[in-house]
Amino acid sequence: MASLQYFSLAPNFILVVIVVLISGMFKLSFCLNPKQLNLSKVATHWSSAGATWYGSPDGAGSDGGACGYGGTVSQAPFSSMVTGIGPSLYKSGRGCGACYQVVKCTKHRSCSKKPVRVVITDFCPGGPCLVGSAHFDLSGTAFSAMAIPGQENKLRNAGVLQIRYARVACDYSRKTIAFHVDPGSNTNYFSVVVEFEEGDGDLASVDLQEASTDSDDEWREMQQSWGADWKLDAGSQLHPPFSIRLTSWYSKKTLVAKNVIPVGWKPGATYRSLVNYL
């Protein structure tokens, strides 16, 4: 009788095991880093765009641009490999910090066909930047990097180039995220530019936590001021040190820079965190 009961239950037992195994595989697939999974997928999706350049032939386009990065655009890790972008990818400043691979510049004889990676640091509001679905107004340095060595000047004189581009993960060689405090900040008003986010590069939201909060869950939402600059107009005195929570735009991944803005912080100063997305 026991043997008969075993064989009648065996199919059900096997079914349960199969369901558990499938469930485990399903959970495993969604435990993967969503940022890496999404960006690797997007990086294979190539689109067409136009490309021009501005500024000096070996420069960074402009001194900081509409994203608010200031002089850092010409310094490592940006190193002048930056771009202004049309409205479709600028996204009212939410596209600031995103990285793109601009390659397949093949229709001009001076194109090297080698990949060039750039970061959005500026906005291109008119002219060719309003034509087509996307347009990259590259720095002179980035535009020249697409050329065959020795033919940079010929490529710069080509006018509007037709290129192919793809969204890629930002990689700053493990450099941590930095926070540049706006010179207009004070005890009641705090504004900061967020720099060097690896992975997605762009931000959906930024929140601030004061030292005086009673719970780790008490965060104050900051508002996008312009470009990569985020502000909190508290209306009363803020109490440092401040922790800052970042949520990326593309993957919605959250990261916390604990007590990154110290007691005695200064307007105009830059404070480096111990964290980054990769």
CATH class of the largest domain: Mainly Beta
Number of strands: 15
What strand line-up does the widest sheet have? 1-5-2-4-3-6
Question: What is the mean pLDDT?
Answer: 85
Distance between termini? 60 Å
Which percent bin holds the helix content? 10-25%
Radius of gyration: 24 Å
Give a quick account of the main beta sheet: strands, pairing sense, barrel closure: 6 strands, mixed, barrel
The best one-word shape is elongated
Structure annotation, total helices = 5
Order of helices and strands: HHEEHEEEHHEEEEEEEEEE
Within CATH, the superfamily of the largest domain carries the name RlpA-like domain
Spans of at least 5 consecutive residues whose pLDDT stays below 50 are 1-38
Stated plainly, the CATH topology of the largest domain is called: Barwin-like endoglucanases
Q: Report the portion of residues in β strands.
A: 25-35%
Q: How many separate structural domains?
A: 2
Name the CATH architecture of the largest domain. Beta Barrel
Structural class by helix and strand composition: alpha+beta
Transmembrane segments: 6-26
Main location: secreted
Protein name: Major pollen allergen Lol pI
Family: Belongs to the expansin family.
What layout of secondary structure does this protein have?
Blueprint: H1 2-29, H2 34-42, E1 47-54, E2 82-85, H3 87-90, E3 99-103, E4 116-123, E5 135-139, H4 140-144, H5 152-156, E6 161-168, E7 178-181, E8 189-195, E9 203-209, E10 220-221, E11 223-226, E12 229-233, E13 242-248, E14 254-261, E15 270-272
Parallel strand pairs: 1-5, 2-4
Antiparallel strand pairs: 1-6, 2-5, 3-4, 3-6, 7-8, 7-15, 8-12, 9-10, 9-13, 11-12, 13-14
